[in-house]
Amino acid sequence: MTARPLDFDVTLERPGFQLRAADRIESGITALFGPSGCGKTSLLRCLAGLEPACRGRIRHGDQPWQGPGVRLPPHRRAVGLVFQDTRLFPHLSARGNLDFAERRRRGDGPGRAEVIEGLGLRALLDQSPAALSGGESQRVALGRALLAGPRLLLLDEPLSGLDAARQREIMPLLRAIPERFGVQLLVVTHACHEVLSLADRMILMQAGRLITQAPLSDLFSAPDYWPILGLTEPAVVWPGRVVARDNDWGLTTLATDAGRLRVSGINPGSGAPVMLRVSARDVVLSLEPPMATSMLNSLPVRVEALENERDGVVRVRLAVGHRAALWTHVTRQSVAALRLEPGRRLHALIRPEVLGVNH
Ligand SMILES: Nc1ncnc2c1ncn2[C@@H]1O[C@H](COP(=O)(O)OP(=O)(O)OP(=O)(O)O)[C@@H](O)[C@H]1O
User: Fold this and answer.
1) How far is the CA of 41 from the centre of ligand 1 (A)?
2) What are the residue boundaries of the Mop domain, all occurrences included (predicted)?
3) If you average pLDDT over residues 282-306, what whole number do you get?
4) Which residue, judged by its Cα, is nearest atom 8 of ligand 1?
5) Strands 297-308 and 152-156: what pairing?
6) Domains and CATH numbers, the chain
7) Are 72 and 78 within 8 A, CB to CB?
8) What is the ipTM of this complex?
9) For residue 108, with 0-12 CB atoms within 10 Å meaning exposed, 13-18 middle and 19 or more buried, which class applies?
C-alpha cells in the first residue's frame, strides 16, 4: 500500500508558548529534531488529535482530519503514537497488549503474524510488561501500534531510554517499517546520530516554528544549521550506494556524488544505501595524487573558499565530484605552502565514517 502524504497547517496557543507549524510529511522516515521545549511533542499531539486547543488544518491524502467543520477524534485518524515510556497495559501480557490493538483496528493494516515476525516478538508473547527490557517493551509497543492499522506512526523519542546495544537492535526494525508495512514514520529525537542512522529527511524545529525540511545530506552539510544541530566541527553527509565488494580485503566500494569511496566494517548487499559523514579532521590536502598512504580514499578537489578562524586556523571549502562539497582545516602556513586560493586544484585524502546502512 502506498503511503499518503500528511499535510498540516496548525497552531496551538499555551501560556508562554505558541506553536505554528505547516509542512508535508511524505512516505519513509522523517525525523523531527529540535531543542528541548521547542514543541515537538505538542506537534505530534496536535497531529494525533490529542490537543483540543489545536487550530488549523490537517489532511492525510484525500481525507481531512481537521479543518472547517471537521475534527476527527484520535481513534478515527489512521495514526499510531508510541512514546519513550511505552505505556503498555501492565495487567496484560505482551500478547494481551497486541490483542487489544487488533480489536481496535482501523481498516487494513499489517497482519499479526507479519508484525510478530517483523519485530521478533514471538518469544515475548507470554511475558508481562514488567518482565520486559526497555528494548523489548519498545518492540511490543511498536507491534501494538502497528496492529491498530495506522498509515502514519508518530514516535516520540523511541530510542532515548535505551542503551547503545538496544538502540542498534531496534534501529533496523524501525528502518524497515515503511517498506515492510506501508506505514510512514515521523520520529521525534534529540540525537543527531539517531537521525543520521534512521531517517530519510529531517524537519528542524525551534521555538514553536518549523525552520526547514530537507534530506539529511543537505541539512547536515549546511553551515547555517550546524549550531542548531549542535555540531561543533564542519562536516558533510553524503548518501552512497554499494557498487562492489572485495571480500579478500573486507572492503566495500560506494558510489557517492563525490566519487567512489572504499570503506571497511560493513557488508551490505549490492545497491544498498549507505550514509557517510566526512568531518573536517578526516580530510588531508595534498598537491600530488597520493601514492602510498594508509588512507584508502583520495579524490581530486577544487578550493572554493577560505575563511580565517581563530588561532591561525583556516577553514577551507572544497568542491568535489558531482556537486558535492567538503571541508577541512589547515594552518595559515599550509595555505602558503600549498598556495591555496579559490580555484586551486589539488587532492584530498579522506576518511569517511559510515553512519548507517539501510539493508
Ligand atoms: N500539558 C502542558 N500544559 C502546559 N504547557 C505544556 C504542556 N506540555 C508542554 N507544555 C509546554 O509547551 C512547550 C512545548 O513543549 P513540548 O513538550 O511540546 O516540547 P518538546 O520539544 O517536545 O520538548 P522535549 O524535547 O523536552 O520533550 C514547552 O514550553 C512546555 O513547557
Assistant:
1) 7
2) 292-359
3) 92
4) 42
5) unpaired
6) 6-227 (3.40.50.300), 235-357 (2.40.50.100)
7) no
8) 0.96
9) exposed
